[in-house]
Amino acid sequence: MIYYDNGIFILETKDTSYWFKITKWQHLEHIYYGKKIKRQKSEALTLKRTAMIGSTVSYSQSDLNYSLDTLCLEWSGIGAGDYRKSPINIVGKDGNFESDFIFKDFKIYNGVKKLKSLPYAKYKDKECKTLEIKLAEKHSNIKLIMYYTVFYNSNIIIRKNKIINDEPQIITLEKVMSMMIDIPNRNYEFYTLDGGWIKESHLHKRNIEYGIYENSSTTNSSSNRHNPAIAIAENANENTGNVYGFNIVYSGNHYSCIERSNHDILRIQMGINDYCFKWKLKNKEEFETPDVIMTFSSNGFNKMSHNFHKFINNHIIRKQWQNAERPVLINSWEAYFFDFDQKKLINMAKKASEMGIELFVLDDGWFKNRDDDKRGLGDYEINKKKLPKGLNFLSNKIHELNMSFGLWVEPEMINKDSDLYRLHPEYAVEHLDRDSKLGRNQLVLDLCNKEVRDYIVNNIIKILDEVKIEYIKWDMNRHISDIYSNTKIDRGEFCHRYILGVYEIFKRILDKYPDLLIESCSSGGNRFDLGMLCFSPQIWASDDTDPIERLKIQNGLSYFYPLSAMGAHVSSSPHQQTLRNTPLSTRFNVACFGCLGYELDLKYLSREEVKEIKDQIEFYKKYRNIFQFGKFYRNKCYKTNKVNWQVINKEKDKSLIGFYQTLMEASESNDIMNLDGLDIDTKYEVKTKAQRIFIKKFGGLIKHITPVELNPDGNILRLVNRYYTINECEESYIGYGDLLMQGIKLNNQFIGSYYNNETRLIGDYGSNIYIINAIK
Ligand code: DGJ
Fold first, then answer.
1. Which of the listed residues 336, 373, 521 should we mutate to test ligand 1's pocket, taking the one with most ligand atoms within 8 A of CB?
2. Is residue 676 annotated as a catalytic residue, yes or no?
3. Cα(719)–Cα(87) distance, integer angstroms
4. Burial of 299 (0-12, 13-18, 19+ CB in 10 A)
5. Helix (H, G, I), strand (E, B) or coil at 313
6. Does the CA dihedral 346-349-351-354 come out positive or negative?
7. How far apart are CA 499 and CA 484, in angstroms?
8. DSSP state, 315?
9. How far apart are CA 188 and CA 503, in angstroms?
10. CB of residue 364 inside a 6 A radius of ligand 1
């Protein structure tokens, strides 16, 4: 999968090829990255240099056509004629910024060169091969080692770099990317996931014109503003067209940029953000960059997503949770916020257990005087008023109910009103002589300080030693503002050292408790990234559980992250943040495309709602493996008020479709439900999953089917709504894969003129799941 022939490197995965060569002047020239091609002579693919281009600087007087500015490169620098953005900026002797890295030698070996301080992709023997290339800076003793690791079966290439200072004096790295690649432009479009709190990861696309487009974070988390993952596509849709995808295994300030040069070359780079970054390297010291994961698909976005999903499930997630089914959980937060006690929790747990829920999660508010979000963070003593018998008692009760027990923590934070702050104000990230800058009433703990890291690790391990806990929800609810540590480490190193501190803490806890399931969270999806996924197999995708908003959030995430990584809960309606009323069925139909949980007060559920939820959980467990690990398709919809998601198992004999309607339109034309991934020679049955419709949906219209007229807001109808539901129309189709994949024409929706039990009554925010089974 890695070949070297006469100055040319060829990297091959199952479906892709990546070629580059050593030029006459020892630079690495990019030749090709795309659909797999045969190994052969490369002249036809190489960008030509048969003329000297005006306004360029020649690298050598003996070769006037050789200008770094017009070459497609694998790496570049400053001061040798390339005016595009440099992937590296080193300040060396006498304040010199120039760098010109030239090829020295290379080696190829099985496996990965493991990073020392950062998380990295895991692999088994022979699953990957690495090409290690040594470059040397031409006018100093600085070395750059570039790594290309090829995961053949997943169509993934990982890039990263290491800088070694062999200069006698200190050098300062002001920027060092993990990856740079130049490709000839083909009218590409640039895709990113952007948003904010409760509106994370919405997909955005823009044309790439001349200039520079950046996607970055400066909050010292990967951020809900701009997720680190990006894609570049040429006239692509879900199933056709060329798409490049990139993501970084890093949870802090990230940076990527796309630069379209005046000679129509696209430079793509990705790495740690140079925002407030200045890293000093003494003689013989090294700096390693995070892994950048790259993939290419010539079959549109779905295939890019399949490559990423497979790779993340098999190589990013820790082995204990690799492809292991995640439990159905109940979380106490939206039911009680801070207002709970032992009795309320145990009652909730009893109901949850009867419904088939497998994990009970106690969220915020269990420690010290944490009765609101102004106090207590940093302390680990139990809140005796709420939990007089302690955590152990509660955990035992939960286990007696045949559920596992999970606990919320926010270890990276401190409130000023806490014993920890009173004892150690210097543990907080703030200038002690300036006004505190608070976010959600809290400060960040200084993870650059070893004493702080020890404090956190010791406290979490103490709880895990004392209480039977199978799951931790690891929250992190504010951005970092002050770039400052009271330990007086260099400020330019603060941001990166903070993230290294986070990783060290996770590692130390998981070394002792390797089976612990961690769900990371940061006010929802503020830290949804591959770095976190190396420790926490699932991430709370958003505080927004409104299913219609989740259609955008989960859809966006699905481009780069598998469904097994997304925490998705059913909550109450009207919704906490949007006031939107949605059917219980749709709340489930969206949440089941992820790691299912419930987050609502169970005691207010009607008998019919309890029955519906029991059925949902039973159904989810039956198909959980496909929902979490199946191949996921975003299927084409012809209307803008529809979303169509599909998962299918490896054997292609079981598949599920979620078909969602946002706003109903009057007298809508027929819906066509597209399917993908089926075997064309297999016969399948497609059936609607049974679901209940609650009477209250129809208000006064119910008079059309009741013998007597009832007050739409009266006691009788309210009572009937608790004890009686009607069944949603159920469709059933039989056909071979080839026929079904032409798109199923569904039954009519209710349009006011007629009703029978073949009418789809989905209305605003309605949806159905369709179950597809091969007929043996
Ligand atoms: C923010 C999280 O996203 C919520 O789910 C909840 O855990 C709160 N923090 C608790 O403070």
1. 521
2. no
3. 67
4. middle
5. helix
6. negative
7. 14
8. I
9. 36
10. yes
Strand ranges, E, within 62-127 = 88-91, 101-110
Nearest atom within ligand 1 for CA of residue 540: 3
Residues 6 or more apart in contact with residue 505 via CB below 8 angstroms: 411, 447, 453, 456, 457
Name the residue among 353, 362, 403 with its Cα closest to residue 383: 362
Q: Specify the ligand 1 atom closest to the Cα of 523.
A: 3
Ligand 1 centroid from CA 475, angstroms: 7
Q: Containing H/E element for 588?
A: helix 584-591
Ligand 1 atom at shortest distance from the alpha carbon of 543? 3
Mutational pocket test of ligand 1: of 361, 408, 571, the residue with most ligand atoms within 8 Å of the beta carbon = 408
Give tens-digit pLDDT for 411-431. Answer: 999 999 999 999 999 999 999
Nearest CA to ligand 1 atom 6: 333
State residue 39 phi and psi, 5-degree precision: -75, 125
Residue whose entry in the numeric block shows the structure tokens 């019919």: 608
| Structure confidence at residue 459 (pLDDT) | 98
DSSP, res 407: E
B/e letters for 247-266, b = 16+ CB within 10 Å, e = fewer, are bbbbbbbbbbbbbbbebebb
Look at residue 329 in the predicted model and tell me its pLDDT. Answer: 98
Q: Is the CB of 677 under 6 A from ligand 1?
A: no
Q: Are strands 566-571 and 595-599 parallel, antiparallel or unpaired?
A: parallel
Distance in angstroms (rounded) separating the CA atoms of residues 558 and 726: 33
How far, in Å, CA of 42 to CA of 5, rounded?
Answer: 11
| 515 labelled catalytic | no
Cα separation of the two ends of the chain: 39
| pLDDT value of residue 154 | 95
Helix%, strand%, coil% for the chain, nearest 5? 25, 30, 45
Q: What's the rounded Cα separation, in Å, for the pair 523 and 542?
A: 7
Structure tokens at 564: 């097994």
304-323: burial string, b at 16+ Cβ within 10 Å, e else:
bbbbbbbbbbbbbbbeebbe
d(C-alpha 119, C-alpha 99), whole Å: 28
Q: Whose CA is nearest to atom 2 of ligand 1?
A: 523
Q: E strand or H helix at 255, and its extent?
A: strand 254-260
Give pLDDT, residue 400.
Answer: 98
Distance 523 CA to ligand 1 centre (A): 6
* pLDDT score of 615: 98
**Is residue 127 lining ligand 1, measured as CB closer than 6 Å?**
no
CB 452 within 8 A of CB 497: no
* Per-position DSSP letters for 445-462, written without gaps between them: B-TTSHHHHHHHHHHHHH
Q: H or E element: which one contains 344?
A: helix 342-355
Collapsing DSSP to helix, strand or coil, 254 comes out as: strand
Neighbours of 207 (CB within 10 A): 10
Average pLDDT per block of 10 residues along the chain, 776 residues long:
96 98 98 97 92 92 95 97 98 92 97 93 88 97 98 97 97 98 97 98 97 98 98 97 98 98 97 98 98 98 98 97 98 97 98 98 96 97 96 98 98 98 97 94 98 98 98 97 94 98 98 98 97 98 98 98 98 96 97 98 96 98 98 96 98 98 94 98 98 88 80 87 90 98 96 86 96 96
For CA atoms 420, 425, 429, 430, the dihedral sign is positive
d(CA 109, CA 125): 11
Among candidate residues 303, 316, 380, 369, the one with its CA nearest the CA of residue 338:
369
From CA 375, how far away is CA 418, in angstroms rounded? Answer: 6
